[in-house]
Amino acid sequence: MAAAPPPPAAGGFVLFLHGSGGSGEEIGAEVAPYFAAPELASSVRLSFPTAPTAPIACYGCNLLCCFALWMLCKSCAAVITAWFGIAEVPITAKTVRDEKEVLKAVEYVHGLIDKEIASGTSPSDIFVCGLSQGGALAIASVLLYPKTLGGCVVFSGSVPLRKSFADKVSPEARKTPVLWFHGMADGLVLFEAGHAGCAFLEELGMTCEFKAYPTLGHSIIEEELQYFQQWILNRLGISGITETARPSSSSQHKDLQ
């Protein structure tokens, strides 16, 4: 006899991917408090994996140096956490990544999703989210996953795949809703990259809610996280949650995508 399927896991599952140079622990400290209310303990499970380390040339000099200086410093590679290589700074709407590296990272994320589904979680209750490079990986993973998920949330990210990948996006994946945050003053992942990414998703027939912040740079702020929390809870059908403890200040991320 075939083994009985696992019982459905309670509530939703949020997979959140940090930006390059960061860690799961660091981004978890920012995000987890928004789901810390006692009534959410059994309703929303969170996961904050940490990327492997790799020598990235961009980090051999000051992260916020000008582009010309970065070009001179490419030989000064530093070992940092990164989901895939960083081709250039700043990230623009035309930046091209190493597709093999991106797809390898996507495969890793798909493994985490598959494991969660095997444990009994419905795909419709799974959310793949990320900041900066983590946001780029999140949207790439959702586009190439063969099932409709609960949603994808991108903070200050971009689409790291060429438009030629559109043919590989299944009809099921196109049904996954996307929430996209981006600061118009972002100097590392330019606003044009985020806006173009959301436009590409809409060309695929996907729903992409885009929230722009005129004075926001490359960082994540409380206003975004509050909206993110409510967006997740609404899709899980959870309401009436009381106010939870939140970080006293917003995070200033310096990753390069």
Automatic annotation (TrEMBL):
<dbReference type="InterPro" id="IPR050565">
    <property type="entry name" value="LYPA1-2/EST-like"/>
</dbReference>
<comment type="similarity">
    <text>Belongs to the AB hydrolase superfamily. AB hydrolase 2 family.</text>
</comment>
<protein>
    <recommendedName>
        <fullName>Phospholipase/carboxylesterase/thioesterase domain-containing protein</fullName>
    </recommendedName>
</protein>
<dbReference type="InterPro" id="IPR029058">
    <property type="entry name" value="AB_hydrolase_fold"/>
</dbReference>
<feature type="domain" description="Phospholipase/carboxylesterase/thioesterase">
    <location>
        <begin position="81"/>
        <end position="232"/>
    </location>
</feature>
<dbReference type="InterPro" id="IPR003140">
    <property type="entry name" value="PLipase/COase/thioEstase"/>
</dbReference>
<dbReference type="Pfam" id="PF02230">
    <property type="entry name" value="Abhydrolase_2"/>
</dbReference>
